[in-house]
Amino acid sequence: MAGGEVRYRHLSRKSSARVALLRGLVTQLVQYEHIQTTYAKAKEAQRMAEKLITLAKKNNEPARRSAHGMLYMPLLLMPKLFGEIRNRYLTREGGYTRVLRTEPKKSFDQAESAILEFVDGARDSRFMMTAKAVARDRILGRLSTPLTQKNVKKVTLFRSEAEFQRMVERFIALEKEREMDDDIDDEDENQVQDGEDVRFNTEDDVPESSEAVAIAEKEKAAAKRMGPSIVPEAVRKAARWFGGNKPAA
User: Fold this and answer.
1) 130/144 Cα distance (integer angstroms)
2) Segment 25-83, tens digit of pLDDT
3) What is the pLDDT of residues 28-37, one digit of tens each?
4) How far apart are CA 194 and CA 121, in angstroms?
5) Distance between CA atoms of 118 and 47, rounded to whole angstroms?
6) CA-to-CA distance for 145 and 134, rounded, in angstroms?
7) Are 71 and 23 in contact (CB under 8 A)?
8) pLDDT value at 1 more than 50
9) CATH 3.90.1030.10 intervals, the chain
10) pLDDT at 122
11) CB–CB of 141/133 below 8 Å?
12) What residues contact 114, with CB distance under 8 A and at least 6 apart?
């Protein structure tokens, strides 16, 4: 109907090109579980990804054929889709993916960028950011904010508490390692600053070898003998000319 509400984003493409684009994004999402694109493309690909997970949860022959037609690499990704990913979301009723806004990926057009990822996946951004916030609070010895506590409940709703604690401990270890590296760099810088005024006399510290002295004397004598003959005659004449002594014709 003319003038009606747009039911989906056309993405400035024909229908066939739009479907091909979304199939490519969903294929990459199943393969990597975390992709970055524009916000409009992420929202449209999210709709197709949600349908794909619903088909995987049905796990019947018509659903497999439909999922096979959505993916560009079905032979590679169908086992993962109907295995690992399906088992992850068996108890979840919906909301299998998440779209997070990010800074514009391309500076020249400032297009809205976003991350499309699987919830509770191996690269779940909210899970890792929440664990990093809790680790920072423990290092500083302070209580977590109400927002952080709320996010902890969200990310551990379908994932184990032990897995979250392992991620927190990992961030704590990384933070301590980074602080140790910073301390070592500061010590090295202080040592360099303290030693700036130190002067070393290499002639006094390193004893001269008699063999080295003899070789140096031989080279010096050979250079003196080669001195007159090593300069071409034309160069010597030019030197006398510019020195005020005109060479004889």
Assistant:
1) 10
2) 999 999 999 999 999 999 999 999 999 999 999 999 999 999 999 999 999 999 999 99
3) 999 999 999 9
4) 51
5) 12
6) 9
7) yes
8) no
9) 12-119
10) 81
11) no
12) 36, 37, 38, 39, 42, 43, 99, 100, 101, 102
Look at the block and give the residue holding tokens 């902890």: 152
From residue 237, how far is each of 69, 172, 248 by CA, in Å? 89, 79, 9
Residue 246 has pLDDT above 70, yes or no: no
CA torsion angle 6 8 14 18 (round to 10): 170
CB count, 10 Å around CB of 169? 13
Architecture of domain 12-119: Alpha-Beta Complex (3.90)
Task: Please enumerate in sequence order all residues whose Cβ is within 8 A of that of 249, keeping only pairs 6 or more positions apart, or say none.
Answer: none
Instruction: Read off the tokens for 220.
Output: 């010096």
| Residue 205 identity (one-letter amino acid) | D
Joined tokens for residue 46: 């999210």
- Are 38 and 111 spatial neighbours (Cβ–Cβ below 8 Å)? yes
Tokens 């690499």, residue? 73
- For residue 210, the tally of other CB atoms under 10 A from its CB is 7
CA distance 192 to 197: 10
Please say whether the beta carbons of 116 and 42 come within 8 A.
yes
Query: What is the residue whose two structure tokens read 């400032």?
Result: 110
